[in-house]
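Sample 1 of the test manifest.
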Amino acid sequence: MNGYNCVVCIKQVPDTNKVTGDAMKADGTINRAALPAVFNPEDKCALEAALQVKETYGGTVTVITMGLPAAAAILREALMCGADRAVLVTDRKAAGSDTLATSYILSQAVKKFSPDLVFCGRQAIDGDTAQVGPQIGEKLDCAVVTYLEKLELDGSVAVATRDIGTGVETCRAKLPALFTVTEKFGELRPYQMRLVMKHKNAEPETLSCDDIGCEAERCGFAGSPTSVNKIQSVVLAGGEFKEIPATDEGVSGLVGELIKDHTIG
Amino acid sequence: MKNTQGEVWVFAEQEDGKLSEVPFELLGKARELAGRLGVKVGAVLMGSGVEGLAAELFAGGADTVHLIDDPELKVFRNKAYRHAMVELVKEENPQIVIFGATHMGRDLAPAVASALRCGLTADCTDLQIGDYEDKKTGEKFENVLHQIRPAFGGNIIATIVNARNWPQMATVREGVMKPLERGTGNGERGTGNGERGTVVRHSAHLEGVEIPTEVVEIVRRVSSVNLKGSRIIVVGGAGVGSKENFKLIRDLAAALGGAFGGSRAAVDLGYCEHERQIGQTGVTVRPALMISCGVSGAVQHLAGMKDSAKIIAINTDRDAPIFQVAHYGIVGDLNAVIPAMIKAIKNKGQDNG
């Protein structure tokens, strides 16, 4: 086997760790403009996994993202870390896609490259659904290995270590296979100076839904069975609040109260 | 396609022939939803040699147990479980299917939804039956599943519906729904009318299906951490200051006979293990008492603990968001407050003899 053909699906997300006052509009919706757009953290781990495969066994790494043209920024980042090829799927028809439609469009894009291995981050920090990876895998009808922590390849078989919550599983997966990668896999390597210079103005190849043979009714709003009925900003339940002085007497009084109402003791 | 008489289903996740608490939490919610809809609750039990678990599921609130017992299902593998579940849904046409948002549930549910081309909402914290009007088309839908979940790092709560492509599917966070109290289900916890549920056997339909993964080994985590089962939890945040100082958190927990955990910041700083992380990306807990020490209270953290019955917050910053969910607030240095608290607990304990 002459190296492995790897595809990595990545996403540009608003940095939900930086939500501040003006990030939420008065109506409870998100002011995306107020948040920096970043390379989704676990997608970086997915890229690292692919780059390690290329390094160890040879092959190529193609990164694919679906989004607005501005998402090219993370594709450039991926190239600067060592990805060989960057592809942007951008199309108005994709607007409003939920996880089902997104996974459909991405699976169509992935198929175009006939990869041996597909890597996705476990989940994106804007939605936290962890659905798109396994749904791409189902559509590719290949082996699906979620929560990947370690990976070795043995010809046409992947030997993977995955977190199953209650423990750690080692499994053998026949290629082609799709992996969702968690932060436990390890951090993405830094940019390589040489590649930074080479790719700083790189424009990715772009593909439309038609280019990858998507049926219109399976894309965007039309292809999305879920709809948002209501959005509320998080209102912290006020309830009763009592301030206790930070003194021995204050603390001792509180402990006494908790013993009395059988919360403790 | 839309079967308004269809059952409300729970995926009864089992490992090594044992059910975790999750299916029982889901059954508690499923009973409520099925009650609103006037339909039955079904539990889907998959595995090899697992029929014996059906009684527990009846006791937990199931009317029907859909059993798929097949050697190929001995351990969870995406393709095998997905295929069996998809065929079962096609045969039985439930209206709602809920899964635990566990590693297994979050692996299986998306694949099943993808194959059935239906909607799926991840990590719900509540499910309700309600109506929905599509504002674009003006179409109205009655009695659909409102799937409620935090999104955007916990900054918003979204209600999602899937009004057209049924079944309506969701995964539900662990520790959020309440299992039925004993005495209210069908069996041991049962209504006492002696009625038992029905076991319906189904084929896994795996003849000729190639399963591309093989499980070589599973090493179960031997974990002494049981945050969800703890009545009292003491949580430390970045404000604890150092790994050494986290001993204060452990000591307070020990004095109270409770468990201890950390905020994401504390875990990232290496103060405590990842499995003790409380919050949206960690464990959701709602103990009788939570004592939060040096935790500022990022929304992601609050999402995982704000339903605790009593919350005491200790923080030097009067404006820390944690005080907004706390019932008792102590504005002060945890290095002084915690030792005072431990001392008070020990003294009061002696008073009570």
